[in-house]
């Protein structure tokens, strides 16, 4: 009878462990599951579209009130383009005239998680890289996306400040 009770206790423990693991797995965001990331972005109010980049890796393009942002995937298997390890959240700004590189670097100083680069036309692109590995909690992913969203909205004010000042004159 004691063995039967121990066996039932073990089965109950395994069942609860499996349920807990299933709940935790559902709440993990990883670069190896772009479709799951799309669902999370949808739940956040974005309008994401899952596609592929020119080399075949996943790419998410999303439109929001702040414009268009992209999610690039890195560390993917070179042949199958899956098992990705990291992502880059990126927004590009289209200025009327090239932006001064010194001012672009001030943006990085003001928003330390944002990296800034200028394209050939002098338009700034800002990005936020996340290494996800085996995955991060969905709540952490959501906080990062919201922080990125806030940062790029505030960054837009700096990017377009000169143009707004010229228009006001």
From TrEMBL:
<keyword id="KW-0732">Signal</keyword>
<protein>
    <recommendedName>
        <fullName>YbjN domain-containing protein</fullName>
    </recommendedName>
</protein>
<dbReference type="InterPro" id="IPR019660">
    <property type="entry name" value="Put_sensory_transdc_reg_YbjN"/>
</dbReference>
<dbReference type="Pfam" id="PF10722">
    <property type="entry name" value="YbjN"/>
</dbReference>
<feature type="signal peptide">
    <location>
        <begin position="1"/>
        <end position="22"/>
    </location>
</feature>
